[in-house]
Amino acid sequence: MKLKFSIMATFTLFLVFSWPGTARAQDVLPFPPTPSASEAGLTMQTSTYNKRVDTDRLAKDAPNILIILIDDAGPATPSTYGGEINTPNLSRVADQGISYNRFHSTAMCSPTRASILTGRNHTAVANGQIAELANDWDGFSGTIPKTSATVAEVLKAYGYNTSAFGKWHNTPAELTTSKGPFDYWPTGYGFEYFYGFLAGEASQYEPHMVRNTTVVDHPHTTQGHDYYHLTEDITEDAIKWLREQQAFSPDKPFFMYWAPGAIHGPHHVVKE
User: How far is the C-alpha of 113 from the C-alpha of 109, rounded, in Å?
Assistant: First the structure.
């Protein structure tokens, strides 16, 4: 697994990313379909059948890509960057890569996410404020326009498997019912798989969970424990997705967007 690491704050603490730098550029996505390699004659006997081969647009060493997005934690909080909260696991990951000390932050949920997912200014992708306050002003409608592709859409077109877990918060509240419309849910923005919650926050013990476009009941326990906690749930689901991705598509790289509900409120921490 090839990954590059960087830190973003004040709203977003941790961002892990890398790009398939050797992939050939394309002006228009999605790519046009591969033409048939067969030639039809008047009969089967006079026809020539050849299975079409899609163009491989990724380098053989295209990296796996993981974005970890943590809410409401500035760079001065973890011990990784001199803070008072002991974060050895964060330090272990950061030590494998590089860290940046200059960045731009929107300092709010939905704008931060829209900027990361599209690489554009938050108002340029209609997320000038949180999704619950979406309105009809330009730059504030709360729906990322389809003219602004997300990183998941681009990478999927190039051949990546894509997934998102945890907090979404880029769909206006009136569009998040169980009857959709689903165009502005994660699966409508290039993520082949989604397991998490659509709103700005959720109970860590009894969250309102969605799998792809279906509202699901959360488990009452998590693996190995007699309690349920959202962070552990999406962690186990992400691990399962990774194992299946490696088993069924070992020739494909993956892109995962992992955004837990913590440490955003409500502050629910298991007793242990």
Answer: 6
Predicted confidence (pLDDT) per residue in 26-72, tens digit = 568 888 989 999 999 999 999 999 999 988 899 888 999 999 998 88
> How would you classify residue 180: left for phi > 0, otherwise alpha for psi between -120 and 50, otherwise beta?
left
Give a yes or no: residue 181 inside a domain: yes
Would residue 131 count as lying in a domain? Answer: yes
The residues assigned a catalytic role are 109, 169
| Of 143, 151, 146, residue with least CA distance to 169 | 143
- Yes or no: say if 2 and 63 are a contact pair by the CB < 8 Å rule: yes
DSSP 110-154: HHHHHHHHHSS-GGGGT-SS-GGG--SSTT-SSS--TTS--HHHH
CB 59 within 8 A of CB 23: yes
**Count of structural domains within the chain:** 1
Lowest-confidence segment of 196-205, 242-251, 262-271 by average pLDDT: 262-271
Judge whether 93 lies within some domain: yes
Q: What is the pTM of this model?
A: 0.86
Domain holding 189, by residue range, is 5-27+55-259
- Cα–Cα distance, 268 to 256 (Å, whole number): 25
Long-range contacts (CB closer than 8 Å, 24 or more residues apart) made by 100-107: 100/6, 100/7, 100/8, 103/7, 103/8, 103/9, 105/8, 105/9, 105/10, 105/11, 105/12, 106/11, 107/10, 107/11
Using one digit for the tens of pLDDT, what is the confidence trace for 178-216? 999 999 999 999 999 999 999 999 999 999 999 999 999
Element containing residue 268 per DSSP (H, E): none
